[in-house]
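I have a small job for you when you get a moment. Can you supply me with one protein entry, sequence and fold together? It will help me judge whether the discrete encoding reads sensibly. Write everything out right here, beneath this request:
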Amino acid sequence: MQNHKIPAFIAVAICCITCWGCTKSVAVNPTAKPSKGDFEIKQAALKELPPTSAISLKHEHSIKKGEQGRLIYPSSMVTDKDGNILIADNNGHAIDLYSAKNNEIGVLPTPTGEGALRFPLRVRKAQQKIYVVDDEGVKIFKENGQYERLLRIHLSVWDFVLGKDGSIYANTAHKAATESDGLIVKLNPNGEQVSSFGRRLSQPQYSGMDDRVFMECSWPLLFVAFKHRPYVAVYDLTTEKLVREFSIQHPVFSRLEALSKDESFTNPSASTVKLPRYVAGIAAADDRIFVLLHLPQVEIVEFDFLGNEKNRFRSSEVSNVLNYFGLGIQNERGVLKFYVGGSGVAGDKDSSFLAQFAVATSD
């Protein structure tokens, strides 16, 4: 099994990118029987429960780990306006660059000395700049990979988005977070904290895991989808106030709620904390938000900005997915293109892939 590393300044609060457990001294029920994992619970529930109504996704093609030498251990991805997918390859110490037009994947040329990537975790692109969270902080590059500077922010960043003025909005982890810490931290273009907002649950037994979110911005709205809770919160970045929140529905989720109350699952040992995974990614296109569910099958739910569910999409061709590393979306002349990154298909938990799906829109 290959090694993988989360940046040192992030490892304080989380132990692995695609894993859903972390270590912490907690009270454990010594008589509790071992519980099934959330993957097994989801698989069983999908077989037993009636399927939700969904539009079928056409699987156009995939690139898998080892093909063209990339996808060593991907941790996140983002789609740019030119139709490219930028992938933070954690163990590859690089940003993989996938061209949807050519169905080819390469590597963004970055420095080998100062500015070299060290276990990149998250990547974003805005204002013709590429921002990467890695072991040393936030590194900023030009579109061609030329290194510009490092922001040593001294924060453990789980996900982040970029504001119009170069501000960074980050979901951060804390050793002992409190509600006053804020769910989202705003940093100025120099990486200095200027404010924080949003309510944390900060349940001490979960070591901050219950407050991890995936983020997407459609200015001035910030959408945050909770990884371990089935709902989305929407903030206005001009006021930093909560605008609305809405739930994500799926028949399997009632089983996961029960699992989250099972000590043999959440605290299987004195050094381990786990929570069921509901959400695997979020992306925006036009006036719609798309949420990738953390299920063995690829399933994406479309909402309008008011939180009303509009459509649901599913692929029967890509299943038995253990983990995901992101969701990207583009609208190409009335055809929605979804890009889903994951691993674990066909029982190989180390088999990373990037899959492209299409569905005709009603416009």
About this structure: Residues 38-48 form the longest helix (11 residues). The chain has three helices and 27 strands.
